[in-house]
Structures are given as C-alpha cells and as structure tokens.
Task: inverse folding
C-alpha cells in the first residue's frame, strides 16, 4: 500500500497538492460534515475540497488494512452490489471448523501420530493460530470446490454440479469467533430462484403446487450426492468397488464406543468397523475407507 502511494505521488503529484497546508481544524470540520451527510442530516458538504480529497485518499488506503472500519465498509458496499445485481441471496451458510476436535489440526501443529484427547486437541489449536487458520482455509477451499461446485482458479463452474446445485454467485467473509478461532459466512445465489419477495409471492400464487414440489425436490437432492462406485478399486487387488459385498452389521456398530472416552485418549484397539469386502480377494474394509478412497480418486 505504501509503495503504491509513493509511486502514485511520483507519477501524479498534483493529486496531493495542498495536503501539506491542511490544518487540524479543516480536517475536523470535514469529518464532522461527512458524518452528518452519512446520517442524512445534511445534503452537501461546505468544507474544504482539499480536506475532502485528503480524507478520501486516506479512506481508500485504509480499506486495504485488515479488520479496519474502511475495509468493512468496502465489503459491505460490495455485498449490496451483489444484491442489486442478483437479488436476495437464497442461502446463508456459516462454515465453522471443528478445531477443538480435529486430528488434522494436531498434525498441522506438529503433534503426535496417535489420536489425542479433546483437551490435547484444544491445547494444540489454541497454541498454534497458524494451524487453526490452515484448517479453516483447507475447509473453505473444499466448500467452494465441492459444495458450491466452483473452481476458484478459473472463476468458473467445475465439470460437475456441487452439493447445492447450480450456483449463480457467492460472497463470503471470515471473522473471529468468541473462542479466538476463525469461521466464515457465505451468501449464496442459486440459479432459477426468485430474486426477491415479490417474485416469490407471484410464483407461489400462480404455480404454488409445482413450485413447492420443486423446492422439496431440491431440498432432498442436497442430502445426497451420488458417487460412482466403479471409479474406485480395491487397494489389494484392484477390483472395482462396484462389486463390493456387504457384510452383516454387528451389534456394537450401534453402540457409542467413543462416548466412553470423553476427555481421554481413545485406545488404539478402537477401529472402524469392517462392513464391506472385496469379491475377488475377500479383503474387508470399513465403509469410511471405501468413501475416503472414492473421494480421493475423484
């Protein structure tokens, strides 16, 4: 920011003419009048034009400073611009990483390879802000790519739809929670949705049954995302997952085993239950293993 200001001063010094002659009284009067205009108490300013140019330059520069009032004001205007162009957002989503109980955060902070307790995880999270922020950015990238179905590199849609369907636009911001970690808020605009309350009421009045059925179908579609099993294969013999054989579900699968060890380290003998097997080599896997392999291979 300071380098850009220095270059601008060298290339166009006339922009800063008169700044060295400004007095404290002129700046105070300009700030007071600008606040009155913002509140609607005045329609035009009568203060010094040089003072207003100086304040405008300072506001533009401070909008690049994180967590400043000017930055918040800048992004608030950008949000209103999105709303003017696309209408009211259809979804408001809060993305909060589970940093208090995340094994990934412990790994980012250089923790042990064994599964830690929740107290140890919280200590690792609160003691390493970089690891917590890294977990947030990892989940934010996954949310944009897989849930929204958008590629942030090319600023366009991916070959497949995201979990929420066809997304027209989105706007997201990150803020600090009360416990000190970060989380994000998203406004999401979906395709083929009413842009405002008037359009919504008109559509309900004319085609209420069709519209409500489409809303119900959309809500059901967000709860499932089909994954082709033939895109995954057995880690031992390479046989496709499309021919997996289901195993009987044991009784202990319905027990809350981990709940017995709240605040303590989970014993190493507690493992994921084996629920499927390969039809060729008879190797047995957990359903979580099959899902992880499918997601990593797609």
Result:
């Amino acid at each position: 920011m300071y380098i850009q200001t220095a270059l601008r001063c060298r290339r166009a010094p006339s922009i800063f003419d008169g700044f060295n002659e400004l007095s404290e009284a002129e700046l105070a009067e300009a700030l007071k009048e600008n606040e009155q205009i913002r509140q609607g108490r005045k329609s035009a300013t009568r203060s010094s034009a040089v003072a207003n140019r100086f304040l405008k330059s300072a506001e533009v520069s401070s909008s690049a400073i994180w967590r400043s009032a000017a930055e918040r004001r800048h992004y608030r205007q950008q949000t209103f611009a999105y709303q003017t162009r696309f209408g009211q957002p259809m979804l408001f989503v809060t993305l909060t990483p589970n940093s208090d109980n995340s094994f990934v955060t412990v790994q980012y902070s250089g923790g042990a390879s064994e599964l830690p307790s929740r107290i140890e995880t919280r200590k690792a999270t609160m003691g390493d802000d970089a690891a917590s922020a890294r977990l947030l950015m990892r989940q934010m990238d996954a949310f944009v790519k897989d849930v929204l179905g958008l590629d942030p590199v090319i600023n366009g849609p991916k070959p497949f739809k995201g979990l929420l369907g066809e997304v027209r636009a989105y706007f997201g911001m990150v803020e600090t929670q009360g416990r000190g970690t970060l989380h994000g808020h998203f406004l999401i605009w979906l395709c083929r949705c009413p842009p405002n309350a008037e359009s919504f009421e008109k559509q309900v009045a004319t085609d209420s049954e069709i519209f409500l059925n489409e809303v119900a179908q959309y809500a059901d579609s967000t709860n499932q995302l089909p994954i082709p099993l033939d895109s995954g294969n057995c880690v031992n013999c390479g046989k496709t997952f499309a021919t997996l054989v289901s195993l009987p579900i044991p009784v202990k699968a319905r027990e809350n085993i981990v709940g017995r060890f709240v605040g303590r380290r989970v014993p190493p003998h507690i493992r994921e239950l084996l629920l499927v097997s390969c039809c060729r080599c008879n190797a047995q896997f957990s359903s979580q293993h099959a899902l992880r392999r499918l997601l990593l291979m797609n």
